[in-house]
């Protein structure tokens, strides 16, 4: 079987080669904020530390919940100043739905429907909230 989890050395923010800024427990607040700004710029969202940034990374299959996330986005963004970045590939219907939700909420939602390991690292390091 495939073990769930992540390689803690590969994803260690003190030495992760994909991050804009490496950080540790003493520099985490500033490091995460700088990585958030880099992530916002990378995906084309307005750069603003104060806006909460939610990240979803996953396979676009029913058991991973992309349909739940897609259904929740209009409710989340309608009354809140929030940004959402979605990353994943899988079933074409979910890929199309992610792109359509991005089109409905420009400046708030970005959908990246391809495999992109460096971006996954950036999202983990820069997001305020991880939707798993």
From TrEMBL:
Taxonomy, superkingdom: Eukaryota
Database matches in SUPFAM superfamilies: UDP-Glycosyltransferase/glycogen phosphorylase
Name listed for the protein in its UniProt record: Granule-bound starch synthase I
Organism this protein belongs to: Elymus repens (Quackgrass)
């Amino acid at each position: 079987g495939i073990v769930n989890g992540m390689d803690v050395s590969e994803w260690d923010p003190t030495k992760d080669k994909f991050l804009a800024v490496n950080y540790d427990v003493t520099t985490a607040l500033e490091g995460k904020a700088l990585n958030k700004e880099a992530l916002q710029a990378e995906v084309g969202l307005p750069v603003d530390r104060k806006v909460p940034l939610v990240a979803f990374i996953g396979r676009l299959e029913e058991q991973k919940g992309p349909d739940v996330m897609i259904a929740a986005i209009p409710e989340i963004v309608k009354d809140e100043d929030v940004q959402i970045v979605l990353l994943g590939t899988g079933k074409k219907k979910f890929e199309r739905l992610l792109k359509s939700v991005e089109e409905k909420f420009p400046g708030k939602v970005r959908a990246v429907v391809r495999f992109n390991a460096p971006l996954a690292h950036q999202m983990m390091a820069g997001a305020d909230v991880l939707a798993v």
